User: Fold this.
Amino acid sequence: MPIKPFPELHVNNTKTALVEGNRCVSYEELNSRINCLASGLLGQRRDLEEECIAFLLPASVDYVTVIHGVWRAGGIAVPLNVASAVSELDHYLSCAGVSRMLVGDGKQKSLSDLCKALNIELLTVGDVISDSAGPLPEIEEDRRAMMLFTSGTTNKPKGVVSTHKTIVAQITTLIDAWEWIDGDVIPLFLPLHHIHGIINILSCGLWAGATVHLYPRFDIKEITQAVTAGTFTVFMAVPTIYVKLIEYFDSADETEVRQICEGFKSMRLNISGSAACPVNLFMQWQDLTSQVLLERYGMTEIGMGISNPYSGERRAGCVGQPLPGVEVKLFDERDNPVISESIAGEIRIKGQNVFLEYWNNTEATTKSFRDGWFCTGDVAMVEDGYYRIMGRSSVDIIKSGGYKLSALEIEGVLLTHDDIAEVAVIGVEDEVWGEAVTAFICLRQGASLNYEELKSWCSGRMSPYKIPKTIRIVNSLPRNAMGKVTKPDLRKLL
Ligand code: MCA
Ligand code: AMP
Assistant:
């Protein structure tokens, strides 16, 4: 069926859609900017026909203009991590076969060599946007719309492709489940290359006709001031942010803390997700703000799958029940459905919310589905009707501050260090980050390496949040009879 992608941008509405610093942009103005950008991208063409257009932009009016502009012109939007190292960008851009990339003013110089080498046209929004909007294509809902990179148990991140239909399904289930209304006001400080920021906050906010306040980063002072002023009705964050807020309360004076907590108390909803919310954090947040955190479970490949209820009991340590339109089943190691409660199994998902494919990687796509079910690799059990996440089937996936990291990808970079002979990376439980990246390193004979040296070597070779928080120099790595490093044994060394 032909649709206008993301049709409900409240076309003639003069209400504020976005706030960026002191600038307020209405839905009307935003729509017309998006149409002008889509026209500029099209030039003489009628349809971008799934051309991959990358953009490297912080949360901003330009970001929103570009993502919607690409959708409306029929392209595939490839939002990239603004904190990426050049080698990471190289992988994303070549993997996606990007032809054009839009960046903020001032970023062009540092990326010009890379783009030249990859034959990518490097542009700013100002270079592309037309003065007026021309005709835009009609787009089949099954067409590809977005590619997000996700780390897996392989070395390099894979491109997760979703269609217009996937995106609409991911948004609309949350609009209903969390009772979004046009009176909502929400801050957006999470990165905009992941579902949490793109779908749960930005897209739901705009779909509902709400107001989204854009912050290029999590500036605790600025955000808590807006909370105190009673600006927001909804707050969505990863557990690390709630930990950081509580830490901040310890350093702030009593009156300020009381005012911030009152600001949170007056909101209609506080949500935690992207990583497990520890029960003590849930309790502390409730004690401080009277807010009962709504925890939910999701993944790049599926959007949101399971959520505690908006009305009804939100249970600490649990992620709730399947969202409307999302089928969830647990399977044992022999691929049989787990029937009884309190027995753990792998979470598998079906529904219109599920992604289409890994880009150019039929093998990985095929492997990730069984009998039409997408296999998440997360293990859960059901207790009294509530899903509880028990862990992951792979030790090579680390969740740090809400980011999913591949141990193998980090090991791959560390192994290029001249002094490192062998390395194994694991995630170690951590109060702030959930899991902290920890590297066990065997040095080459005669070499020496301290943490600060390694950290500065890593900088520029990987995104800052992937850099190990701790290193342990060891003489050898524990291995099984097949020679494979036994990562659970490394934990025992700590
Ligand atoms: C920053 N640092 C980190 C992380 N973030 N280290 C480990 N893990 C991290 N996640 C380090 C920096 O390298 C730096 O180190 C120091 O912390 C301060 O950096 P800064 O940028 O100032 O930190 P921050 O602003 O406090 O960032 C913390 C953060 C951020 C806001 C929690 O990590 C973040 O935005 N996380 C959310 C990611 C997210 O949206 N995930 C959703 C994907 P040094 O000082 O040594 O230089 S999951 C998803 O989308 C699914 C579908 C889902 O379920 O939601
Ligand atoms: P990503 O692939 O970056 O989208 O991260 C998705 C992963 O985050 C899931 O596969 C889970 O392992 C984890 N995750 C998301 N939400 C939760 C949650 N509420 N509790 C525990 N893990 C979560």
Q: What stands out?
A: The chain has 15 helices and 28 strands.
